[in-house]
From TrEMBL:
<keyword id="KW-0227">DNA damage</keyword>
<dbReference type="GO" id="GO:0006307">
    <property type="term" value="P:DNA alkylation repair"/>
</dbReference>
<dbReference type="GO" id="GO:0006285">
    <property type="term" value="P:base-excision repair, AP site formation"/>
</dbReference>
<protein>
    <recommendedName>
        <fullName>HhH-GPD domain-containing protein</fullName>
    </recommendedName>
</protein>
<dbReference type="GO" id="GO:0032993">
    <property type="term" value="C:protein-DNA complex"/>
</dbReference>
<dbReference type="GO" id="GO:0008725">
    <property type="term" value="F:DNA-3-methyladenine glycosylase activity"/>
</dbReference>
<dbReference type="InterPro" id="IPR011257">
    <property type="entry name" value="DNA_glycosylase"/>
</dbReference>
<feature type="compositionally biased region" description="Low complexity">
    <location>
        <begin position="14"/>
        <end position="25"/>
    </location>
</feature>
<dbReference type="GO" id="GO:0043916">
    <property type="term" value="F:DNA-7-methylguanine glycosylase activity"/>
</dbReference>
<feature type="domain" description="HhH-GPD">
    <location>
        <begin position="112"/>
        <end position="267"/>
    </location>
</feature>
<comment type="similarity">
    <text>Belongs to the alkylbase DNA glycosidase AlkA family.</text>
</comment>
<dbReference type="Pfam" id="PF00730">
    <property type="entry name" value="HhH-GPD"/>
</dbReference>
<dbReference type="InterPro" id="IPR051912">
    <property type="entry name" value="Alkylbase_DNA_Glycosylase/TA"/>
</dbReference>
<feature type="compositionally biased region" description="Polar residues">
    <location>
        <begin position="49"/>
        <end position="58"/>
    </location>
</feature>
<dbReference type="GO" id="GO:0005634">
    <property type="term" value="C:nucleus"/>
</dbReference>
<keyword id="KW-0234">DNA repair</keyword>
<dbReference type="InterPro" id="IPR003265">
    <property type="entry name" value="HhH-GPD_domain"/>
</dbReference>
Amino acid sequence: MIPPPQTPTAAAGISKSPSMSSKIPFRARKIRRLSSSSDTSIKIGKSPESPNAESSISPKIRKSLSCKTEIDLALEHLRNSDPLLAALISAHRPPELTPCISPFQSLSRSILYQQLATKAAKSIYTRFISLCGEESSVLPETVLSLTPQKLREIGVSARKASYLHDLADKYATGILSDSSILEMDDDTLITMLTAVKGIGMWSVHMFMMFSLHRPDVLPVGDLGVRKGVQSLYGLKQLPKPQQMEEICEKWKPYRSVGSWYMWRLMEAKATGATGPSAATTRVEP
């Protein structure tokens, strides 16, 4: 299955007027210094001075592949770590990323494209945009205002309408937001997005790769990537998820780019073409 192109952007400031109570004078109090023996709350977990304290609190998110220098680093790493992949990289142009829009719009598009031929999906998505007003108007509140009947009239199934409404509701209630999605580490993102109705692991992997441009995503459930790994390494059978993890371990921390080349490999085999002319410059598989 060839996933549709996805494109992945806002925080509101809250002003607070001074409280009347702030004008009431208070007597200064001495602050008792806690002894090291009684300061148990600070000793739980890593100390602030620990070099790994920051990563333990907020897992580091690697630079986005939107940055060309990051793609260059990825290609250098993959060439050095995997000779078979190095030959494939030399035969194809590097990926070029498409512009990002908003995570909410990208996820909505992903839902509408599910299990449809590209032409039919584009047609429904175009009508969906018109129903919302314009592409920039694909917002949670707009989607929630669209009844299942209105969505049905443009070709959206009742099930997909419920998926769209569940996504929009999670935004409206603050469970998700564009800003929080951009800040989540990969594991948290997978957990939060797969809790949305109609969004499974494959959809999240595609979103992470082609909307957020996360560098280290391995879509172990994607048939094209699995076939690419099978072909590249001469395996007799399609590798299973655990085997995929083991084989592609050497690609870390740029498994997204390695996976991208698996799609290019299968495209070349399907057309019988070889060399740079067989490659596509689009990032979407």
